[in-house]
Protein 1
Amino acid sequence: MSGHGTPIPMTSHPCGPLTGSAEVPGDKSISHRSLILGAMAVGETKISGLLEGEDVLDTAKAMRAFGAEVIDHGGGNWSVHGVGVGGFAEPDQVIDCGNSGTGVRLIMGAMASSPITTTFTGDASLNKRPMARVTDPLALFGAQAVGRSGGRLPMTIVGAADPVPVRYEVPVPSAQVKSAVLLAGLNAPGKTVVIEKEATRDHSERMLAGFGAEITVEDTDEGRVITLTGRPELKPQVIAVPRDPSSAAFPVCAALITPGSDVLVPGIGLNPTRAGLFTTLREMGADLTYENERHEGGEPVADLRARYSPDMKGITVPAERAASMIDEYPVLSVVAANATGTTMMGGVKELRVKESDRIDAMARGLRANGVTVEEGEDWWTVQGLGIGGVPGGATCESFLDHRIAMSFMVMGMGAQKPVSVDDGSPIATSFPIFEPLMAGLGASLERA
Ligand SMILES: O=C(O)C1=C[C@@H](OP(=O)(O)O)[C@@H](O)[C@H](O)C1
Ligand SMILES: C=C(OP(=O)(O)O)C(=O)O
């Protein structure tokens, strides 16, 4: 798990064209959900293309601790023999979710309506992140939580012996909170209703329907209203995990800012609740096209083709697009530094409670490398220096945050001087093949 090991300092050198095909790993959000819902189904779920990053491996380990049989068949092929809704055993060990907010919050939801007690912990980053956003609604089901001050991990959840269904309006745009409530609702008799004012990624809703749960989604004046009927028997599924658009963002953005590049990123999930970055890049003038558009496993998929784009312009990113690209703002800010004019990113308060405070982490590293950044509580602007205009030459802190580390590695590829990070080890949480994949395209990454 990241944060427990030795830091890995890394440097990215300015490089020539990036070319070829970038086969990025499976989607992290869908991978977590496949394992968790597989563990709550009756029978064997088969998963191909699972992301074998540390975050997801920690979720696999947790599902074993709750009694599911989780088998790694090699090559991204996994099977999960589930124990059924309400069938979780009480783990006899602390559940360590490493660096993963998704892992810990979804698993808390999945166990909260069962009469078992579980203690959760994580690495130094996860143990700083807010958990009350999940334990508040879980208390409505009858679960109790005792954690550190400020609702932080380590934390013990005493699941509800007699859960009741709830109606809950999610106060922050968060698919993790929405999903935790839905997963808890699975073992509550009756209808659990979750309302979200802004649409967030909908993988849980899609996958619950796929597993045979009774779930409806309505767009109303109060927002998206999701209604789930509790105590279903979930039917095991065969799941092909699409490739992760949040990982695709790195080779795509690297190609846009590196002279002469032409990179194909095949088979990327383009669920509209996830594709905001690509829309934004196209609005900035990026030469980014969708080829071979198709549907796979109920999700829209395309091959992305990104070519060097010397004429990108700064834009105001619509605040209502934030949820559909929330993990992509760090790398977008690197592209913004290589565009002309100012890029304004508003409505992004959530960036401050990710693996790091991502506005602060990016602002520090961008400034150290010669880029002007202004920020407020829920917005930031990046002053573009034009293509190739980033001076570079400095070392950035990654704050145990994979997206920060990878974003600065991308920045180095198009900068005037190399860019370094103090610790690239968190990259393994979501994109374990980042270094060989980028090197295969022509990037020059070095471990110090
Ligand atoms: O549900 C999910 O799989 C995720 C939801 C998002 O978090 P929030 O729910 O905190 O916005 C996102 O940042 C995270 O990487 C994955
Ligand atoms: C925010 C992220 O993940 P998590 O919340 O699962 O730690 C991310 O992957 O960018």
Protein 2
Amino acid sequence: MNGLALFSRRDDSVAKGEPLLTVENVSLRFGGVKAISDVSFDIRKGEVRAIIGPNGAGKTSMLNVINGFYHPQEGRISFRGQTRRRMRPSHAAAQGISRTFQNVALFKGMSTLDNIMAGRTLHMKRGFFWQLWRHGPALDEEIRHRRVVEEIIDFLEIEAVRKTPVGKLPYGLQKRVELGRALAMEPDLLLLDEPMAGMNLEEKEDMCRFILDVNNAFGVTIALIEHDMGVVMDLSDRVVVLEYGRKIADGAPDEVKASQAVIDAYLGVAH
Ligand SMILES: Nc1ncnc2c1ncn2[C@@H]1O[C@H](COP(=O)(O)OP(=O)(O)OP(=O)(O)O)[C@@H](O)[C@H]1O
């Protein structure tokens, strides 16, 4: 894997190892339910950061706050040093934050190619009518987008299914197409919500390899939610642990694994 036209839009305003995204004292409530309570942590440029915790701990809510889908009642999010309370998901995507979902969210009747192409929409400078005209600059632009999409397809080893409607693909491949669509946005920060859920061992190994390649070869910072502890410990540089919406541990995988609070949370010890 080399020479990809992908990720030409690298943003070097944050140095590797410095905080790319900071979550400060974030609290989120749904009516009487406190999904997140006063949580702070950061995601450093270039790392793989896992967010783990038992069911209902607030992990997906946290991803939704980071990508602007939910607006916290308290606290702040800073991305590349810019602080905000409210940001729409489309704005987050344009800033370089893209994500995948717990349940695959693709256009099931559309081909692999077209689904990944949909991820490029944000990069299309020219409007819909230009695209219809398919002439001159608009055509050049479309050719360039197609080339990037073909490179993603090569990278993810899904050439054989490029024309197949994604609804007909096995679940593991659908998850890979969804990763492809998120990559097509050329993110600086990629949020993955349970990327291995429902996969068999071989599919999980493939997905782990792709995640590490995306991180190493393209320098994309990754935050992921994952329930498989083996995967979390293998993939992540640092792990933040939530329980009942609160942060109970934060550190290197080995530190977190040895934390009594984490052991208790996973064993279901009453507080
Ligand atoms: N849209 C919503 N409306 C009301 N309550 C919500 C909503 N989304 C999440 N919650 C509640 O917030 C809490 C945290 O949920 P969240 O889905 O973030 O947890 P999670 O750690 O991702 O769980 P899981 O591992 O089961 O996916 C739960 O009590 C959940 O019921």
Protein 3
Amino acid sequence: MAEKSSPFIAPQPIRPSAPIEGFALDSTNTPPSSTTSDSHQTFSHRDILRRALNNDASNITPALPESIISPAITPPSTPGGTVVSQPRVHPNETTQTGTHTKGPKLLEKLPNVECIVRARIPTTTGAEMFLHLYQNDSDNKEHLAIVFGNHIRSRSLDRVQEGETEMDRMIRGAYVGRLHPGRVSSRLEDGEEVPNEAGALQKGHTESPLVRIHSECYTGETAWSARCDCGEQLDEAARLMSMASEPTSSSTEPPVDGGAVSDAADGPGGVIIYLRQEGRGIGLGEKLKAYNLQDLGSDTVEANLILRHPADARSYGLATAMLVDLGLGADASPEGIRLLTNNPDKIRAVEGPNREVRVKDRVAMIPIAWRTGGQKGIRSAEIEGYLQTKIGKMGHMIR
Ligand SMILES: Nc1nc2c(ncn2[C@@H]2O[C@H](COP(=O)(O)OP(=O)(O)OP(=O)(O)O)[C@@H](O)[C@H]2O)c(=O)[nH]1
């Protein structure tokens, strides 16, 4: 009778003929002789993980026996069409038994970004926002800025392009004020304000704008998943920012001719930088594999490591560059931003290599279920484990 193989052993381990870029197999960590393909020793999740976590910090590859994880389930790089290749595990990352900490990926230079188009989106809550779509020279993804408040403007979008017509400008969203049928100019109409040099309209706000750097999560934002709080965080950030872009009592100007309050009365507003780094940068397919590993007993960090990904494969240079483009960098907004996050890594990373952005305050994102004693918000066994892992292993400050 054929011997039953371990689910973790590839039937025919395939060894890459050439090392995969940024991901060398550790030849010093020779697998035990009993792990050859014709001697199928069973390894539990914990065995695999213990080996990964006990590995010396200077060796950036978790020391998994080669035959245990099939190359068939470990694509050579995290997805995204990255132009600049990055190692699978960041060199800053250190591993210790029981914990897995990492520093943010700090880039030496910010990528170049350009806002290609912007459009007004009335939302189901009644609030309005402007969706900005960006291109960049670091990957080929469509990263987004969701802008609450009329005064936050993109420099690259507003820049005049050679040969463009007024209609071209309006179609790509480089207009001031509101579009309406019959409008012929992208520029000022009667009663509208002049953008300042940074692109932002002068308002004299007393409070700093709210900013959230949000990583894409198809499962949590679209597919109703109760494994994480990503969808809830996105909704909550939008709610807070739409409040922050409403007229405030301190800045409200008297309505002109008894009409609507003018734009000048808007609050400081906010921006959600929506980065297409699904699954903390490993992509949806790999995240779904990680979910299966979690159902088999691993936590979120362990599952990533078993799949030979870093615990967190993200970087935030694009977010910094987009904030600078939106006039929220230290050059145009020296008072700084208020960052909605529980992740301490993000704070330093978003500030950029030369402190291009200043984070004035961190605003915590407490899960709604925790705030309401379970009356509202997401409730599941999975999310409790997910949040505990973020606090215990990733240093998140959920308070
Ligand atoms: N690899 C992996 N990614 C996950 C998992 N659950 C959620 N994610 C992804 O995690 C990202 C969100 O990261 P989080 O760690 O929840 O939060 P954060 O962005 O680091 O910190 P906050 O700013 O406090 O929200 C999204 O891209 C999700 O798709 C999981 O189990 N495994």
Protein 4
Amino acid sequence: MATKVVDLRSDTVTKPSEAMRAAMAAADVDDDVLGADPTACRFEAEMARIMGKEAALFVPSGTMANLISVLAHCDARGSEVILGHDSHIHVYEHGGISTLGGVHPRTVPNNPDGTMDVDRIVAAIRSTDGALYYPTTRLICLENTHGNSGGKCLTVEYTDKVGEVAKAHGLKLHIDGARIFNASVALGVPVDRLVRAADSVSICLSKGIGAPVGSVIVGTKAFIHKPKILRKTLGGGMRQVGVLCAAAEVGVRDTVGKLADDHRKAKVLADGLKKIKQFTVDLSSVETNMVFFDMADPRISPAKLCQALKQRNVLAMPTSSKSVRFVVHYQISDSDIQYTLKCIEEAVEEILACDAKSERCSTNGTS
Ligand SMILES: Cc1ncc(COP(=O)(O)O)c(C=O)c1O
Ligand SMILES: C[C@@H](O)[C@H](N)C(=O)O
């Protein structure tokens, strides 16, 4: 029997459910590049409806969804996008908007809650009277929930405010909504209301929603025409993609309703960590499915802890030289959470005992 692994590295690690696999096998498909795949068309129409936008486009990944969205809005040479210094687009997408799209990033500091100060966004907008020197600001990007801040939610009030700034300055607003459903559930705000101010949104199907592959870009019908061309340009035009959309349909139907439980389990995990004195965790920062915690004992490093947990079939990821991240998803059970906490306690004991032993060895002069 396969060893049970509690995989808390990310919510991207879920395996397709039996219902997803059955839907994939039974999917009615055709050539999506020719616009003929019935399952893709049905799914895209449903996602547009859910998100309150006119149109939607299925793409292979969240990275490609963000890249295509930025390039579609910034389709003139010398364009600049305002985005968070700690945003996924800026930190984890290989600078694709610049290296592939020629778009210049203008970063604004992300606050601990994932927002960027509105006055700093306004200050970052290039004035047109500096045209000889300045790129042209065309786009503002937000990220909701904000991954590197621990899955924090951007409120609808904040999002609307940034939308007003964009409109007042003739700019567009894109939301990296990889986990927008987590934000919607945690805030208790309908997802279409949460993104109303945005001109485009990218939504990951392969995270909390649990689909094996894909993201969706939503926006106006006129806007989506450009992403469709850019998707093909980037090699993302796929043929019988209904096989993948069928799984995503099941995820949207079955898994969005489980996100609140992911958030509850994350809080249980954080509460358990709080009781272990070798770690520090800010319970108020656990708003959705992510738990970031810091090492409070110099004898315990993120790498040592993750290694010791891995030996107990619990997987996690260091996020810095002093912190570790757990990401909960619907394939993590309550007993998995309790098992993880037990393994953490054992791992701490093991690391400290090993450290004490090596300490005794070094004071005794034996190596
Ligand atoms: C906030 C955010 N945006 C975009 C992405 C990119 O998605 P993908 O991994 O599908 O390229 C991720 C992570 O995967 C993410 O966490
Ligand atoms: C690391 C990042 O690319 C991924 N989106 C995650 O959160 O796991």
